[in-house]
């Protein structure tokens, strides 16, 4: 059987294993809730993981639509970037897919697997970009809050007078 | 030579955490940056006479605790068990059914089990069992009891300042346990040792000294309002001067200082000013105060006594000015304090009268004893009596949803009035899913003094359930404006949206009211209060 066919056939099994692996990265007492609760409003973390990795898996197999892959990664990593994870742990789930697929494939697909490995490595790098962008955003928000609190205060209390955007008419 | 691992060794590294996690009691707390807030500065504690002011750092091993810290906490614990029957009950009656466990926004957003309300309360309850129950004294850990140690204290502090006292969990508790009250008492205990966060301690000290959280002095407060008066004149062509500290006025208006100094609350403040000017002709006799210049009360996040001290200025200023009653601006925890505590803290005030709207004659019986009315119910009453000429099409560029603030929704059952006002001034209003609004509303993730900057990760994950619901209505209906009636919400939801749903902005309800309010003799509006062009009016701007 060709690797593509196996990956299509075992899709739901692989995705389930992958989801469980990601949820295992959370503290044990919280894992049940992340798996069990099916409402997207009561359990945004669990549901985002479940739905996004499905699309992500399909796109990884196809290996074409980088934009879609980035968007899936963003949904998951935006959450993990503000949770109790070290940077490496926040994006490790991408690499976990390798072993999960390998376990399902068994032996004898080394050529195809090498291609898939490379693709997953590429996506891991993409995940790193997404993670950095999220962290960068957090810093920007912090700076913006401080500026908003202090800058406006000085200006409006007439303590500073900067060059206006438009010169007053004579 | 460097000890580089061989490829075979590297291949053995697995990506899974250890399966041997110990029970929660044995796990030492790790104080993480991005989650904890900076420690209170000694000057801020000294100013209000709080105990043990000192330089300390939560990230350090040594918190410089007083030698007899354990006695102080145990004594404080016992005092509060005697004083607050509710606290004693809440310690005793929880059966750990788990109904509250997955209802906390911090647990939902972080997956950290110690953010489950039951577990957070258990941090205190375990020490209670050890010291105050026979089973706990004899059986120890087998009865869920444990000794109070320095590590336990640190764990208390870390998690008590990861609860926004929003009370969503209490809605689901079959016994009616209010976990927020456990947090409130827990925080009181930490304050006995000078363990507070500066984001709370500084506003408390400032408020005590100058009358508001930021320490804005009266002249600066007035300058800011003058600035708004100019802005309003630019937009409407009408000069809408306000009165300050005017003795003999009928009504005193008090709002959170955030409305005066932080965007986008400033636009809400302009909205109040415009409404008051509009009603002047109809007989509204109202004054602002530059002394009672803060509706918020960060003392409430410190201790009951501190909340009482800071709250006292409202009645004191009302008495000094000789007003009949007090009108309050759009705020969250301010109303929790006013609605639930002020009456017994400092009231009932002899000098004030039962509030009656001078425009409609409506008696606000709900405020019979506190003598303080929420501006949104005041405005809803005006609308019900057709006292305002409104053009909701001026808000047509907005697709609006409404975030119920925890304190107004769960703290005072204030659910319909804001919606009634919004629907009168906006043509496009969309509710978020039912399990995320009204009594079940999700917290902004930054309330109860946790709106600092250094804990941004905590704020973002705590606000995730709220943002997730906003994202849903944004994708489904194209919602681009999140409205709210709380000053902290206005500030923090702006950041929350920027991270999770950047297409959505944040507004106070009275900003939208003022946009829609039609004044006699005003110039044709080409922009909204933010100076952004109104749709269909762009071409007329330069005429």
Explain the layout of strands and helices.
The complex is a heterodimer of chains A (170) and B (543).
Chain A: H1 3-9, H2 11-23, H3 28-36, H4 44-62, H5 66-80, H6 87-105, H7 110-156
Chain B: H1 7-10, H2 42-47, H3 69-83, H4 85-93, H5 105-110, H6 117-132, H7 134-139, H8 150-160, H9 168-172, H10 179-191, H11 198-210, H12 218-236, E1 251-254, H13 258-261, H14 265-280, E2 286-288, H15 304-321, E3 325-328, H16 333-340, H17 342-345, E4 372-374, H18 375-384, E5 400-402, H19 406-412, H20 416-425, H21 456-462, H22 464-477, E6 481-484, H23 487-500, E7 505-508, H24 509-516
Parallel strand pairs in B: 1-2, 1-3, 3-4, 5-6, 6-7
Helix pairs in contact in B: 3-4, 4-10, 6-10, 8-10, 12-14, 14-24, 16-19, 18-20, 20-24, 22-23
Structure description:
The complex is a heterodimer of chains A (170) and B (543). Chain A has 170 residues and is mainly alpha-helical. Chain A has one domain. Chain A has seven helices and no strands. The radius of gyration of chain A is 22 Å and the shape is elongated. The termini of chain A are far apart. The model of chain B has no long low-confidence stretch (mean pLDDT 93). Chain B is built from 24 helices and seven strands. Chain B folds into two domains: 29-201, Fumarate Reductase Iron-sulfur Protein, Chain B, domain 2 (Orthogonal Bundle), CATH 1.10.1060; 211-516, no CATH class. Chain B is mostly helical and 543 residues long. In chain B, helix 23 (487-500) links the parallel strand 6 and strand 7. Chain B has a four-stranded parallel β-sheet with strand order 2-1-3-4. Chain B has a three-stranded parallel β-sheet with strand order 5-6-7. Classes of the chains: A mainly alpha (170), B mainly alpha (543). The interface between A and B is large, with 43 and 48 residues.
């Amino acid at each position: 059987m060709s690797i593509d066919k196996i990956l299509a056939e075992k899709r739901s099994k692989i995705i389930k294993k992958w989801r469980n692996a990601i949820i295992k990265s959370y503290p044990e007492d919280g894992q049940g809730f992340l798996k069990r609760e099916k409402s997207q409003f009561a359990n945004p973390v669990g549901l985002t993981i479940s739905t996004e990795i499905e699309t992500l898996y399909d796109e990884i197999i196809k290996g074409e639509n980088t934009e879609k892959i980035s968007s899936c990664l963003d949904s998951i990593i935006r959450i993990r970037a503000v949770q109790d994870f070290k940077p490496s742990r926040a994006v490790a789930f991408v690499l976990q897919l390798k072993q999960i697929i390998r376990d399902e494939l068994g032996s004898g697909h080394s050529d195809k697997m090498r291609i898939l490995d490379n693709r997953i490595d590429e996506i891991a790098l993409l995940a790193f970009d997404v993670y950095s962008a999220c962290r960068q955003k957090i810093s920007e928000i912090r700076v913006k809050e401080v500026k908003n609190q202090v800058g406006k205060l000085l200006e409006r209390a007439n303590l500073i007078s900067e060059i206006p955007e438009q010169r007053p008419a004579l | 030579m460097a000890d580089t691992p061989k490829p075979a060794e590297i291949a053995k590294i697995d990506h899974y955490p250890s399966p041997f996690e110990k029970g929660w009691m044995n796990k030492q707390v790790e104080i993480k940056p991005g989650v904890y807030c900076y420690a209170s500065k000694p000057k801020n504690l000294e100013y209000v006479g709080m105990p043990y002011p000192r330089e300390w750092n939560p990230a350090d091993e040594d918190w410089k605790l007083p030698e007899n810290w354990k006695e102080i906490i145990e004594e404080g614990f016992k005092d509060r068990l005697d004083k607050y029957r509710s606290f004693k009950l809440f310690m005793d009656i929880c059966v750990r059914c788990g109904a509250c466990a997955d209802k906390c926004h911090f647990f939902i957003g972080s997956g950290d089990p110690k953010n489950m309300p039951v577990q957070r309360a258990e941090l205190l309850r375990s020490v209670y069992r050890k010291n105050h129950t026979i089973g706990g004294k004899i059986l120890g850990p087998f009865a869920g009891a444990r000794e109070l140690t320095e590590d336990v204290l640190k764990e208390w502090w870390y998690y008590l300042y990861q609860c926004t006292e929003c009370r969503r969990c209490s809605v689901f508790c079959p016994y009616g346990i209010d976990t927020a009250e456990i947090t409130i008492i827990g925080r009181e205990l930490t304050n006995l040792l000078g363990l507070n966060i500066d984001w709370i301690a500084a506003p408390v000290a400032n408020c005590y000294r100058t009358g508001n959280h930021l320490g804005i002095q009266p002249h600066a407060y007035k300058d800011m309002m003058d600035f708004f008066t100019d802005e309003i004149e630019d937009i409407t062509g009408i000069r809408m001067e306000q009165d300050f500290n005017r003795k003999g006025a009928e009504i005193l208006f008090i709002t959170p200082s955030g409305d005066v100094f932080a965007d986008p609350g400033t636009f809400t403040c302009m909205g109040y000013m415009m409404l008051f000017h509009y009603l002047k002709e109809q007989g509204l006799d109202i004054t602002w105060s530059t002394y009672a210049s803060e509706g918020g009360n960060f003392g409430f996040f410190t201790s009951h006594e501190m909340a009482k001290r800071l709250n006292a200025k409202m009645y004191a200023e009302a008495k000094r000015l000789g007003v009949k009653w007090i009108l309050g601006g759009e705020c969250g925890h301010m109303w929790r304090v006013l609605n639930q505590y002020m009456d017994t803290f400092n009231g009932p005030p002899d000098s004030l009268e039962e509030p009656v709207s001078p425009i409609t004659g409506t008696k606000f019986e709900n405020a019979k004893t506190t003598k303080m009315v929420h501006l949104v119910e005041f405005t809803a009453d005006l609308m019900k009596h057709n006292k305002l000429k409104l053009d909701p099409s001026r808000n047509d560029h907005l697709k609006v949803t409404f975030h119920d603030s925890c304190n107004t929704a769960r703290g005072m059952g204030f659910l319909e009035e804001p919606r009634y006002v919004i629907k009168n001034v906006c043509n496009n209003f969309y509710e978020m899913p039912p399990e995320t609004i009204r009594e079940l509303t999700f917290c902004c993730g930054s309330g109860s003094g946790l709106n600092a900057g250094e804990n941004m990760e905590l704020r973002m994950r705590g606000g995730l359930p709220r943002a997730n619901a906003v994202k849903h209505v944004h994708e489904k209906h194209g919602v681009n404006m999140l409205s709210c009636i709380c000053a902290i919400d206005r500030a923090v939801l702006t950041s929350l949206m920027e991270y999770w749903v950047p297409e959505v902005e944040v507004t106070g309800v009275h900003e939208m009211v003022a946009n829609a309010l039609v004044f006699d003799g005003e110039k044709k509006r080409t922009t909204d209060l933010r100076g952004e062009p109104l749709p269909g009016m762009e071409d007329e701007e330069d005429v």
